[in-house]
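Support request, priority: normal
Reporter: lab tech (M.K.)
Component: structure prediction queue

Hi team, I submitted a job for SseB family protein from Rhodanobacter thiooxydans yesterday, and the status page still shows it as pending. I've pasted the exact input below so you can check whether something in the sequence is tripping the parser. The sequence length should be 173 residues. Please let me know if I need to resubmit or if it's stuck on your end.
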Amino acid sequence: MRWRLAQPLRDGISIVAMSGRRLFELTRGATLMLNPNIDAVALYPPEITAILEGRELGYFAQQEPIDNEVILAGPPSVSTNEVDEVLRELFEQEGTVRAAYLAEVNTQSNKPEEFILLGIVAASVAKERLLQLVTLALKTKSPRMDLPLSIAFFTPDEALPDICHRGIQFYGT
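Reply from support: The job had stalled in the queue. We restarted it manually and it finished. Here are the results:
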C-alpha cells in the first residue's frame, strides 16, 4: 500500500512530503485534493481555515428518500431567520447557487419525522462543494434551529419539486 503513496499515477508529477499543517498554511485559499490515487478527498478553503484554527468541521449524513412515503410540506412553522441569514451570506459569496428554499416537512410513515428541508438549486458539479460549505457554515455560526435540517439539491434545468413551492424561497430568483 505504501508504494502507491510514493508513486505518482502520471509522468511529470512530483510527490512532496510535509506536515499537513505546513501544507494547509502554504496553500491557504486553495482547494486541495488529498490522496488522489486512493480516495480523492477534497478540502475547500473554508474547511482548511477551520482546521488551521482548530475548529470543528461540519458533518452530514446521507439519507435516501423512501418511495411512496406520504409527506406533508409547508412554510416553516418555526423561525428560520438565523439560518436564512447564514445561508444567504454563504450563497452570495459562493455564487453557484441560483435559488434556495426552506420547507417544513412532516413524514406520515411508521416512524413520523418533522424537519426543515433546505432545497438548493445549483449545477450538479457544485453539489459536493456546497454540501461541505453549508455544513461548515452552520457548524461554525451555529444559528438557532428548532427542527433538524435536511438538504436536497436540484439542478437549474430540472423541474423544481412541489415540496419547494410549498415552502418559502429565501434566496435567488
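Residues 24 and 77 are 42 Å apart (CA to CA). The chain is about 30% helix and 25% strand. Let us know if anything else looks off. Ticket resolved.
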